[in-house]
């Protein structure tokens, strides 16, 4: 079990290193404003992915040990396409991003959603290493395309990112599709039928995705507030700090992946709870170690790496450190409730965190700008983790007694 966590952590670390390289390329060649614009586009893509995952995201990890993939996959594909089309229409009429980026962002979201769908299916089959590979391949291609377009062929900085992202996830979606169909051997006649499990898929997916959307709101809502109220330069600076600190979540996210896959195949709740509790202890220790190391990184290091426009990164994220550590526990407990198929504690805790973030952002961002964003995030993380921790401890007392 710990070996699988290590391999997943290694893959995610590679993914984080690539994301860091990509962020570095964008920041140094485009500056804070371009970095902020790219961050806003990627955040919009994440919203499309999360909504698309309603009928085929990580909830498949729980459902596939109990139902056939060949009856779950077709409606998931159709849903991804419908969400992409709806997203395009909304982006054309709502001023979330520049209108000229509506079509490419929609394509990016669709390709990412299909890749996420295939990745979840492979996780459900316990092909963890192959599923993890799908997280790295698109980033390798994106970094390569950016390198060529920034250093060899002059191109618009934002459009270069769009080209690289699209190429990476197009390759990943095709490759994963070929592997998935070959290994699982879908039956064409069965795949064309209307799945009997559709009501279950809708119900489980809706509840799971409500958790995901609330979590995304808790993690990224204030990005829009910071960018729209204070300007893209502030968002660009803050997003660099976020990309550094959120690397700490590699630890709980790796635990989440392995623990979720394992618990979804278990029937002994007490054993699953004890396993999760052990993971919680490991998680809090190592997250504290990594955060302590990041805390002592001086401001001059950010300037040397990202450029002179990012001198305020350390100051911007100073209030976010405790929030990152606290919320790492939420991730681990998240894996337990996903594995046993009970999502309401996750929904309630995320809802409390989101409400806290909206209220705190409205008060803190106009007054303290980036520092206010970090403080608002930390307090909302604490609220969400405290609520879920209360459910988790109560669950433990019921299993022990």
Low-confidence stretches: none
Reading the helices and strands in chain order gives HHHHHHHHHHHHHHH
Fraction of residues in helix: over 70%
Oligomer: single chain
* Percentage beta strand: under 5%
Could you tell me the radius of gyration in angstroms? 21 Å
Distance between the termini: 27 Å
Number of structural domains:
1
Mean pLDDT score, rounded? 82
The biggest beta sheet reads: none
| Structural class based on helices, strands and sheet pairing | mainly alpha
Shape: globular
Number of helices, counting only DSSP H or I runs of 4 residues or more? 15
Number of strands: 0
Task: Give a written overview of the molecule.
This protein has helices at residues 2-52, 59-63, 73-93, 102-124, 128-151, 157-184, 188-192, 198-230, 232-245, 250-263, 269-295, 299-306, 313-316, 321-339, 344-400. By secondary structure, the protein is an all-alpha fold. The protein has one domain. Helix 1 (2-52) packs antiparallel against helix 4 (102-124) and helix 1 packs across helix 10.
At a glance:
The chain has 401 residues and is an all-alpha fold.
Provide keyphrases for this structure:
401 residues, mainly alpha, 15 helices
Write the topology of this structure.
Blueprint: H1 2-52, H2 59-63, H3 73-93, H4 102-124, H5 128-151, H6 157-184, H7 188-192, H8 198-230, H9 232-245, H10 250-263, H11 269-295, H12 299-306, H13 313-316, H14 321-339, H15 344-400
Helix pairs in contact: 1-3, 1-4, 1-5, 1-8, 1-9, 1-10, 3-4, 4-5, 4-6, 5-6, 8-9, 8-15, 10-11, 10-14, 11-14, 14-15
């Amino acid at each position: 079990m710990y070996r699988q966590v290590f391999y997943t952590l290694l893959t995610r670390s590679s993914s984080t290193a690539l994301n860091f390289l990509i962020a570095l390329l964008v920041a140094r060649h485009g500056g804070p404003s371009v970095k902020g614009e790219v961050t806003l586009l990627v955040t919009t893509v994440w919203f499309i992915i999360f909504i698309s995952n309603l009928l085929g995201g990580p909830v498949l990890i729980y459902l596939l040990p109990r139902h056939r993939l060949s009856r779950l996959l077709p409606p998931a594909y159709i849903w991804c396409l419908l969400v992409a089309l709806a997203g395009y229409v909304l982006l054309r009429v709502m001023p979330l991003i520049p209108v000229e980026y509506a079509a490419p962002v929609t394509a990016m979201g669709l390709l990412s959603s299909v890749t996420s769908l295939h990745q979840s299916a492979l996780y459900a089959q316990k092909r963890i290493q192959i599923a993890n590979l799908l997280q790295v391949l698109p980033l390798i291609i994106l970094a390569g395309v950016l390198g060529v377009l920034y250093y060899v062929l002059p191109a618009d900085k934002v459009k270069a990112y769009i080209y690289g992202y699209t190429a990476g996830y197009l390759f990943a979606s095709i490759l994963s599709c070929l592997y998935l169909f070959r290994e699982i051997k879908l039956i064409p006649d069965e795949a064309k039928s209307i799945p009997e499990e559709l009501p279950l898929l809708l119900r489980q997916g809706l509840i799971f995705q409500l958790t995901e959307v609330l979590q995304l709101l808790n993690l990224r809502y204030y990005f829009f507030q910071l960018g729209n109220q204070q300007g893209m330069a502030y968002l660009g600076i803050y997003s660099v700090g976020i990309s550094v600190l959120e690397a700490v979540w590699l630890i709980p996210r790796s635990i989440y992946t392995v623990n979720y896959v394992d618990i979804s195949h278990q029937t002994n709740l007490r054993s699953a709870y004890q396993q999760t509790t052990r993971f919680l202890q490991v998680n809090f220790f190592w997250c504290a170690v990594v955060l302590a190391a990041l805390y002592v990184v001086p401001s001059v290091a950010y300037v040397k790496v990202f450029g002179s426009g990012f001198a305020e990164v350390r100051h911007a994220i100073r209030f976010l450190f405790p929030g990152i550590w606290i919320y790492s526990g939420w991730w681990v407990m998240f894996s337990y409730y996903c594995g046993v198929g009970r999502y309401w504690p996750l929904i309630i805790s995320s809802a409390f965190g989101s409400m806290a973030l909206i209220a705190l952002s409205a008060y803190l961002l106009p007054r303290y700008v980036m520092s206010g964003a970090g403080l608002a995030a930390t307090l909302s993380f604490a609220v969400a983790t405290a609520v879920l921790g209360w459910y988790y401890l109560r669950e433990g007392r019921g299993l022990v007694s």
